[in-house]
Write a structure and sequence with these properties.
Elements lengths: L1 H18 L7 H80 L7 H6 L4 H110 L4 H16 L10 H10 L11 E2 L2 E2 L1 H11 L8 H4 L4 E2 L9 E5 L4 E9 L2 E4 L8 E4 L5 E4 L2
Antiparallel strand pairs: 1-2, 3-8, 4-5, 4-8, 5-6, 6-7
């Protein structure tokens, strides 16, 4: 009898110790805190990759634009070079015409020089007349040739400027290529860290479950000790305690029923969810691979809503959501004026997104966002 009383006192003491959270954290709380920290670390690393992907997308768009300008510059250089060659030919042609006109003036078909033409003068007045005629032709042709040379100089100056502009564009592209390589190298390093962090998170989740299972087993043993004497004295009294204890875990396992939303927003979300498992691809805009803004643009385009291509521009479309979110609302992360990531609210506290390199389109709980936009 004394042993039973002593066992009961010890058991109650153990329960009180396990239930007390104001003095010491339980092993489960410690494991939960560690899991929360590792999960936050994974999220921070993934956020960094999202930002890098956004930077890569921006640089790739810049590079495409620069390549187009370089192509246009080269076309203009080729055109200017053709104009220069044409101008040179015109100058030579005018000089030849000038000589022909002078020769034809008095001696058709002759190859005599201007001096010979003058020596053939029949009188002083004839020589003056010949000099005046030659001078008029010479002045006209010199002006024509001068104008052609001025035009050639302008074309060459234009060509020199285009060449200089092209060199600047090529230097910018070289710089962009260097930035892309640096970002991709950093992203590769970050992906390694993400893999390590996820492994640590998985390890912590396993440890938490082990602690939870161990604590439940310990509590079951303690409750068996406490209820053992009562069961002997009053068998019926133990039943309510056992039912109450068994029902709590079942209630905890119940998943909340997601809210039901009506309207075209649900259609867009259903369409977006159908791409779960599609890989993230920088600059991707098709079901073979999406980036975050590419997924949003593609899904809304399917329902007749044309959105800009990039996250930076999409945040400027639609109306800002100040009340409750609705399915299809766009959630932006980072700065509200220059976000680095966009997702689509899916309802029930979840969102669908193309997260980052190495991941796939997924449905995930909503996390802290900077601004929400309604675009339908």
């Amino acid at each position: 009898m004394h042993k039973r009383i002593l066992s009961t006192v010890v058991a109650v003491g153990i329960i009180a110790t396990m239930g007390s959270t104001s003095v010491f954290a339980s092993p489960v709380q410690d494991a939960q805190s560690k899991l929360n920290a590792s999960h936050k670390n994974v999220q921070n690393l993934e956020d960094n990759i999202e930002k890098m992907d956004n930077q890569i997308e921006t640089i790739m768009n810049q590079r495409d634009s620069v390549n187009k300008k370089i192509s246009e510059a080269q076309s203009n250089i080729n055109e200017a070079q053709n104009d220069i060659e044409t101008s040179k030919d015109n100058i030579k042609e005018e000089k030849d015409k000038f000589a022909d006109r002078v020769r034809a003036l008095y001696i058709s078909g002759s190859t005599q020089s201007y001096v010979d033409i003058l020596l053939q003068s029949k009188s002083f007045s004839d020589m003056v007349s010949r000099i005046d005629a030659i001078k008029q032709i010479s002045d006209y042709d010199q002006k024509l040739v001068s104008d052609l040379k001025d035009s050639q100089n302008r074309i060459e100056a234009k060509k020199d400027k285009i060449v200089a502009d092209k060199q600047q564009l090529e230097a910018l592209n070289k710089e962009n290529s260097s930035k892309l390589k640096e970002l991709n190298d950093k992203k590769a390093q970050e992906n390694v860290l993400v893999a390590q962090a996820k492994a640590e998170e998985s390890k912590d989740a396993t440890a938490l479950k082990a602690q939870q299972d161990a604590e439940k087993a310990a509590q079951a043993k303690v409750l068996a000790l406490v209820s053992a004497p009562k069961t002997a004295a009053a068998p019926k009294a133990a039943a309510p305690i056992n039912r109450g204890t068994a029902s709590a875990p079942a209630q905890n396992r119940q998943a909340p029923t997601p809210s039901t939303f009506q309207g075209s927003g649900n259609d867009v979300v259903s369409f977006a969810v159908s791409f779960c498992g599609v890989p993230y691809v920088s600059g991707g805009t098709s079901p073979s691979g999406f980036d975050c803004s590419g997924l949003v643009q593609y899904c809304y385009a399917h329902f007749g809503v044309n959105l800009p291509r990039t996250t930076y521009d999409q945040v400027n479309v639609g109306t800002t959501v100040t009340g409750a979110l609705q399915p299809g609302d766009l959630l932006f992360f980072g700065s509200a004026s220059a976000p680095h990531h966009v997702a689509m609210y899916a309802g029930g506290g979840n969102m669908v997104e193309a997260p980052h390199t190495g991941a796939f389109v997924r449905v995930t709980p909503v996390r802290a966002y900077s601004i929400a936009k309604r675009v339908r």
